[in-house]
Amino acid sequence: MIHDQARYTHDETKREPLLSEKDQTTVEIDDDGPLPADLTRDSVTLPSLSEPEIARHYTRLSQMNWSIESGPYPLGSCTMKYNPKFTEDVAADPNAAIHPDRAAETAQGNLELRYRLQECLGTIGGMDAVTLQPPAGAAGEFTGILIAKAYHEHHNNDRSEVIIPASAHGTNFATASMAGYDVVELPPGEDGRVDLEALEAAVSADTAALMLTNPNTIGLFERDIVEIAEMVHDAGGLLYYDGANLNALLGRARPGDMGFDIMHYNVHKTFATPHGGGGPGAGPVGVVSELESYLPTPQVKQTDSGAYEEFEPERSIGKVHGFTGNWLVLIKTYAYIARLGDEGLLDASAKAVLNANYLASQIDLEIPYGPFHHEFAATSGDRDAADVAKRMLDFGVHPPTTKWPEMVPEAMLTEPTEIETKRSLDSLAEAFNRAYSDTDEAIESAPSRTAATRIDQASAARNPRLSWHALDSDE
Ligand SMILES: *Cc1c(COP(=O)(O)O)cnc(C)c1O
Questions:
Q1: DSSP state of 188
Q2: Cα 175 to middle of ligand 1, angstroms
């Protein structure tokens, strides 16, 4: 059952007053401090509120926002999954927050955790070595492509192109061009996968790398991956794996075994830590042994005596972030992997795929491509996907990613993740179906029951007003 009653109706939350609007109390200041008179005031006006008033103010503000703890958040490709609270406890351990410049012999526990996480991620991805430094998926891609570039340069191999399927995440294109490569875009085959003939035509002695995600961004497994890898390798190129879709593969298949040479892990999508609201993530990068010496510095190794220490790989591309990157996110990653273990990770990927397939079976929208794994791209057909999505907000769920990838018209790219129960998938399906079959009038004016109703998205993006002072000019 979906909630017929919105958590907060529009009217209730139209305007949560600022603390300074709730109260203005002028307090006299004793003027016998050491500061010069021209730097001090006699009085100051501040809100004088009780603790419950303040707690309620911030709670109300937080409830106008959406989070994975408010309800399902099935953004396709973005993988919004619940962050188990024990990972927060582990990351909040005061021993975790030591100064990164502390001498290695006094920081063995932290170094061991880094070492173990390098090893765990390597095992999960089938990679020989891993850097934890990049602070996000996009930063991981950039690091990986810089490693590919350094490798080609070291082998006096002048290559100018990176091949990317049209359905790839936008960051892939940005990464390749920021690293100085020309992008060769690969049109999708009729079945939504890489078209081998198109790839054959694109691959050449200029190919530095092919960037691929598997399952791809509409959840389809690239069945020809071994052949694809061979084609790229035969031409002297490297194979890059965009690891944002690892939820479908955990414990079942490894990019390294498919022939990939470099990959990043979106640990904030696969191993807890949802990244909504711009929170920090981490994008470790794994490589095969031939590329190990190019990894960013420092890496962690275990010496013969059993102690852990940092070292700089021989041909390191340098640093891509200060110290260890987003350390607390990495601690959560390790805690999540350690708690779940082999069995738990296998269970997570099974449920990620099962949940996507169950949800798909319960919605009335057409899904043009399949069979899919952890996510699917439904189409809202002749209804505007953004309108349907906005109406879903009124039914107490967050909508999926809309209008992307473009190979599916009016796409609603949906990834429920493994965390949702059958109950919550059923309510998600009901929200989908009710929004999809609603009247034009209802969907075009939606959402009507959220704290902010329909906003002018283009102006909000191009002309953002980020200060509360903007409120003054509104009134
Ligand atoms: C999210 C995502 C990225 C980028 O990761 P960020 O951490 O957001 O920089 C890259 N590729 C795919 C397929 C993604 O879903």
A1: B
A2: 11
Architecture (CATH level 2) of domain 85-339: 3-Layer(aba) Sandwich (3.40)
Q: Is the domain 375-454 a CATH 3.90.1150.10 member? A: yes
pTM: 0.91
Ligand 1 pocket check: which of 142, 164, 171, 374 to mutate, most ligand atoms within 8 Å of Cβ? 171
Establish whether domains 85-339 and 375-454 are of one fold. no
Ligand 1 atom index nearest CA of 217: 13
Q: How far is CA 321 from CA 114, 262, 344, in A?
A: 15, 19, 31
Indicate the average pLDDT of the chain.
Answer: 92
Does 283 sit in the ligand 1 pocket, CB within 6 Å? yes
Residue 475, pLDDT > 60, answer no
- Considering 39-48, 99-108, 121-130, 394-403, the range whose residues carry the highest mean pLDDT is 121-130
**What's the pLDDT score for residue 6?**
45
Q: For the chain, give the number of residues.
A: 475
- Across 138-289, the runs of DSSP E, i.e. the strands, are 161-165, 182-186, 207-212, 238-243, 262-265, 285-287
With a 6 Å cutoff on the Cβ, whether 242 touches ligand 1 is yes
Q: What residue spans define the domains of the chain?
A: 85-339, 375-454
* pLDDT 10s digits, 364-411: 999 999 999 999 999 999 999 999 999 999 998 999 999 999 999 999
DSSP assignment of 80-126: -----HHHHHHHT-GGG---TTS-GGG-HHHHHHHHHHHHHHHHHHT
CA 140 to chain centre: 12
Is residue 470 very low, low, confident or very high in pLDDT (cuts 50, 70, 90)?
A: low
Choose between 78 and 65: higher pLDDT.
Answer: 78
Structure tokens at 376: 């699917």
- What is the distance between the alpha carbons of residues 28 and 332, in angstroms, rounded to a whole number? 47
